[in-house]
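On clarity, I found the account of how folds are encoded harder to follow than it need be. For illustration, here is how one protein appears when written out as sequence plus structure tokens:

:::
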Amino acid sequence: MLKIKRVPTVMSNYQEEVTTEAVGCGRNCLGKCCLQVSNLPLYTFSSDQNSPKSESFLSELLLAQWEEKMRQGLFRYDVTACETKVIPGPQGFIAQLNEGRHLKKRPTEFRVDQVLQPFDPAKFNFTKVGQEEVLFQFQNGGTINKSYFLETAGVNPAIAPNIVAINVSPIEYGHVLLIPRVLDCVPQQIDQDGILLALHMAAEASNPYFRLGYNSLGAFATINHLHFQAYYLNIQLPVEKAQMEMITQRGLRPESEKGVKVSRLMNYPVRGLVFSEGNTVGDLADVVSKACICLQQNNIPFNVLISDRGRQIYLFPQCYAEKQALGEISQELLDTQVNPAVWEISGHIVLKRRKDYDEASEASAWRLLAEVSLSEERFEEVKEYIFAAIGVVESKFEVNNEEKQKAEEEAMLDGNMFEPVASHFQEGCLVVE
């Protein structure tokens, strides 16, 4: 059985101190009264897709600061001491033992049967987080030639800053939160700007082991304030190895030859869609945000995984909390106290009890995740909602049989190598007109 040992990937001695001049409430938090008179580190990235991306700049900076926060004792436990292993089997599910995490993380303070709920300033939100938990501001510099970092910079009072902060109850090494426009107090719901910012962060990190995740309300988000999670895990996630079947191609521009591809996951316990490519990162963000907004408006909980440096996005409509409320989840699964959110659905399963960790098997992991998934009938119905939202119509095209056979053979290769998973293309393809 393969066990995973975490080795810090940062060789830098970089350290910094967050300096503030906060006045007002005196709490030195991310609220307007404190933040707009504070100095925080600033990372500025280029939105120009053709600008060169460093393969280590953002990652080294983020991880060095994250490790410094760990040395300062800001986390509720040492996640690097948690046991982690790969469960034997074709899927390669990853199990982590994190005893007591559910007792140390913040409790959910809102209803789980409504995906859209108004922001409530009286409940916990990220304006109440201390500035000592912040790593840096993450701002779009437009078409600047390259990214840059300032150890201290004032917060622009005219623009609500995007903040990268530690997750004080981490799941993995380098676990952070990306909080778009923190002072705008946007509830936990997807919009195009938020998705676009997350894709820029994934591209900026330029590391295949850095992924971002999103949980909607009703799909195990615990805070009703817009945020994405992200961390490093130096192994391919099971969902990234899963076979896919392309079912649509969406060209946002009439003259374009290649648009956003939409595929369906195959032979995976949770039914989901995969969005990739696109003419620009903005095109990909537009399609994915429309799909997510459609789910939100139809009160369908969902999870999102951003993978492959922001070039591949997995969307999982789910129903675990609904089935739990209806008493349709077995007591055996409830006793594990696992809330299957984006990381669990992607194949990285955080277990709370030693017994569950020691006895973890591919069958038990599959059984848990299968309860998350929509039924085939319901998934097809939801898929039609999404297709209507992003505007697709059916069209036919020819597939070269030799290319199709080659793709099928490649998909059967050992999944331990981190290479893009070959797609199986069906003969009926959907395109946008």
About this structure: The radius of gyration is 21 Å. Residues 7-24, 394-433 have pLDDT under 50 and may be disordered. Residues 59 and 205 are 6 Å apart (CA to CA). DSSP finds 13 helices and 17 strands in the chain.
